[in-house]
Amino acid sequence: MTTKRSKIIIGTRGSKLALWQANWVREKLSSMYPNLQFEIEKIKTTGDKILDAPLAKIGGKGLFVKEIEEALLARKIDLAIHSMKDVPAETPQGLQIQAICEREDPRDVLISKEGLLLNKLPDGSIIGTSSLRRTVQLKASRKDIAIKPLRGNVDTRLKKLKEGEFDGIILAFAGVKRMGYDDMVTEAFPTETIIPAVGQGAIGIETRVDDEFINELIKPLNHTNTAICVLAERAFLSVMGGGCQVPLACHAKIENNSLHLVGMIGDPEEKVELIKGFKQCKLSCPSSSLQEVIEAGRKLATDLLNWGGKEILSRIYSNI
């Protein structure tokens, strides 16, 4: 089904960061299509409603996208803007990630109250994060620090740091940059040291498969190299499974016409060390590259599962 429209409704979460992303997309589209009107519709998701519990305790997948996807399927909005790290590996029938915009810095960063690097923080320092992925990687390098749950938007987290609840907090560099807080960053971690979440730093645009008008409209916003990297990461995620309850990570980058993947699965009970792996594949030609990167992501996940990941997942799910 394809219907031309003069007014396009963009669905998004209502947080400051989500609205920044939606407005960025709207401005790009408005500059390309000045004769069209673009409006933003704020939609509250399950993840926005429950702020007093770590995401791992809430459970389930798609905590920040489900209600937006329902609005898209119901044709209440024409396209949806997501942080790709929030999007489950599988999209609902009838929907697709049609464009992935150029990625912002994917690294995690430390903002510490006294401006101290992670390895300089005193024993017993309290670090704020509700991410199991970040927790297991931080504890792998600093077993003496304490991790305390921290939810809320960037401003809320910074306020709690300033008020002395934490000695440091861990955030995604992309969100920090987009909110204009670059100068507060104490330390940015290399992607091989603290591996980012799948899709971290990338904005995805979700559409209805049958909406040819919108699908053509947003094609120019797709950034090929970012899309290839995120595709590989999401292939890793599709094999690993799991949502916020599983501490896993994967990051891909392209260098010298090769895709470089690093992945991790951790044990929230710290019974085993982090299981990490690397994979590389040469990008031959555009027609075959997509399948090659998908296979690289899947193979990396399979390796980690065979190296002990299956036992970790079994233990996690037996406790849910």
Secondary structure layout:
Elements: E1 7-12, H1 16-32, E2 37-42, H2 46-49, H3 55-58, H4 66-73, E3 79-83, E4 95-100, E5 108-112, E6 126-128, H5 132-141, E7 146-148, H6 154-162, E8 168-172, H7 173-178, E9 187-188, E10 203-208, H8 212-218, H9 224-240, E11 248-255, E12 258-265, E13 275-282, H10 286-318
Parallel strand pairs: 1-2, 1-3, 6-7, 6-8
Antiparallel strand pairs: 3-10, 4-10, 5-8, 5-9, 11-12, 12-13
Task: Briefly say what this structure is.
The protein is of the alpha/beta class and 320 residues long. The protein has helices spanning 16-32, 46-49, 55-58, 66-73, 132-141, 154-162, 173-178, 212-218, 224-240, 286-318, and strands at residues 7-12, 37-42, 79-83, 95-100, 108-112, 126-128, 146-148, 168-172, 187-188, 203-208, 248-255, 258-265, 275-282.
**SSE order, one letter for each helix or strand:** EHEHHHEEEEHEHEHEEHHEEEH
Please identify the structural class as seen in this structure: alpha/beta
Looking at how many chains there are and whether they match, the oligomeric state comes to: single chain
Q: Shape from CA axes?
A: globular
Number of helices: 10
State the CATH topology of the largest domain: D-Maltodextrin-Binding Protein, domain 2
As a whole number of angstroms, the C-alpha radius of gyration is 20 Å
Number of strands: 13
Question: Could you report the average pLDDT, rounded to the nearest whole number?
Answer: 92
Helix content: 25-40%
